[in-house]
Amino acid sequence: LPDREKMKTQMEALIYHFKIVTEGFAVPPGEVYQAIESPRGEMGYYVVSDGTAKPYRVHMRSPSFANLQALNTMCVGKLLADVVAAIGSIDIVLGEIDR
Question: Is the pLDDT of residue 35 over 90?
Answer without folding.
Answer: yes
